[in-house]
């Protein structure tokens, strides 16, 4: 089957357990049961800019050495995420996927990726933030549900009876 006739699913991935769970859920419940030859996955990992991280951590610090250290850590994180994505796909013998690392606001980057790849679906995980954290951090899944140019699947990780939000 030609690559262009495959349905494209964009999956937002980060270093959180919810993200990997949403990828695995999509593979196990959509891609593999519906015949993996019909799908191409594009995983998008969005790094926040190093300068933004530094400004949040220590306002006023923007030295070159500090930026270099933060950028190095962000690259390491992206490499770990890429490895986890590859392992999840390889475990299921799914080969038609690509990994992109972008920088910016995850909400906007994911919605732009949907348009760029002509995706039929966007899959994102839900961090399960409480109201306070959602107001401060913004909800990527909520934003994408309202702004993406395709269907959006928000995968929630099962909560144990002892977990609390916030």
UniProtKB/TrEMBL annotation:
Ranges where the UspA domain occurs: 7-156
Alphabetical list of InterPro entries matching this protein: Rossmann-like_a/b/a_fold (IPR014729), Universal_stress_UspA (IPR006015), UspA (IPR006016)
Cited Pfam families: Usp (PF00582)
N-terminal signal peptide: none
Entries under Gene3D superfamilies matching the protein: HUPs
Domain of life of the source: Eukaryota
Protein name according to UniProt: UspA domain-containing protein
Organism of this sequence: Aristolochia fimbriata (White veined hardy Dutchman's pipe vine)
């Amino acid at each position: 089957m030609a690559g262009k006739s495959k349905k494209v699913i964009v999956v937002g991935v980060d270093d959180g357990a919810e993200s990997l769970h949403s990828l695995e859920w999509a593979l196990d419940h959509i891609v593999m049961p519906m015949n993996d030859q019909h799908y191409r996955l594009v995983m998008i990992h969005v790094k926040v800019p190093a300068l933004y991280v530094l400004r949040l951590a220590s306002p006023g610090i923007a030295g070159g050495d500090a930026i270099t250290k933060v950028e190095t850590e962000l690259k390491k994180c992206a490499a770990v995420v890429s490895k986890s994505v590859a392992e999840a796909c390889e475990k299921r013998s799914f080969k038609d996927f690509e990994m992109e690392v972008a920088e910016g606001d995850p909400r906007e980057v994911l919605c732009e990726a949907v348009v760029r790849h002509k995706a039929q679906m966007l899959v994102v995980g839900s961090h399960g933030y409480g109201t306070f954290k959602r107001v401060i951090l913004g909800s990527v899944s909520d934003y994408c549900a309202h702004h993406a140019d395709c269907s959006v699947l928000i995968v929630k990780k099962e909560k144990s009876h002892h977990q609390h939000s916030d």
